[in-house]
Amino acid sequence: MRTVFSEDHRCQDGRSELIEGQFVPCNEMPRRAEIVIDRVRATKLGEILPAQDFGLDPILRVHDKGLVTFLQNAWEEWAATGRTFDALPHVWPVPGLGRRLSDSIDGKLGYYAIDAGTPIMSGTWRAVQASANVALTAQKLVATGERATFALCRPPGHHAGSDFYGGYCFLNNAGIAAQAFLDQGAKRVAILDVDYHHGNGTQQMFYGRADVLTVSLHADPKQEFPYFLGYADEIGAGAGEGYHVNLPLPWGTDWASYSEALEVGLKRIRQYGPDALVISLGLDTFEHDPISRFKLKHEDYSRLGDRIAWMELPTLFIMEGGYAVDALGVNTVNVLAGFEQRG
Ligand code: FKS
Ligand code: ZN
What we know:
By secondary structure, the chain is of the alpha/beta class. Helices cover 37% and strands 14% of the residues. An 8-stranded parallel sheet has the order 4-1-5-10-9-6-7-8, sandwiched between helices. A two-stranded antiparallel sheet has the order 2-3. Helix 7 (200-206) links the parallel strand 6 and strand 7 (212-219). It is globular. The relative contact order is 0.14. 7-[(3-aminopropyl)amino]-1,1,1-trifluoroheptane-2,2-diol binds at residues 19, 28, 117, 156, 158-159, 167-169, 195, 197, 225, 282, 284, 291, 320-321.
């Protein structure tokens, strides 16, 4: 399997995020991608390709212009106030408070951000655009006949919606790629999100549409971030009713119960009959992940890859989360190699 990768991911290198009332070093760090690309090389998974530039058009197919312009200019507006540290919001437009777009950078940050865990710095836009281009480059390979490719995206994307960012995500790489498949002639695309956290951005983006089936396995939002979305009774709306599936699972979930939910998700995808499958590949379901509470083991990732290969669909793997950094290369490539073994 070929991997698409850009060194520009390093331009996103946040100092700290807010967790449990404290500022701690960012879990979403450059070393994550380095360890994965090292493992791709060491295991000779396949060729590594650079990203091509697709410009803003494919991004604007799923994201509002306002969010994109904000992300492009946020650092400059922040730095213009004399601040030299990373930009984070400190106020949010909860229902009842209104949601007006302020001229102030602090108002804008609160308007577009969903959390205080997603710092913006001078290189953020460069890394974010490169990440989308990695996804689009890999998407094009699959659209033109490759059985599967791996988009080693960083920063991740599944928490970013049409007009919001957060949860370490700025643009929704999986959503952008799914839309690109459709724009290139696919009739139906399925997104399977196996990250530990609910893909609230992906859900929001496609909630009213039947041409993208979104299926997410994740920690129950009753217990976990992003808390406000990801419940089982959210099934899509209007034309999209029945085209979204949430499979929330409790803390402590191991492969035995994870794989049962996975079969439910895969069955629904098979019934949908998509032309392409996009995997939001998060590895934070690992037993030793520092911010998560599922119990998957190294070998379970090979099984996961094998089950995905059984679908026999053109498949695009998009990197999302995973914070047990030392194990991240092994776990990620286990999925991809498990997939390849099935051929
Ligand atoms: C823990 C607080 C959690 C934010 C967690 C973000 C997770 C991001 C991710 C992605 F794939 F997007 F990277 N704060 N108590 O792993 O879903
Ligand atoms: Zn996650």
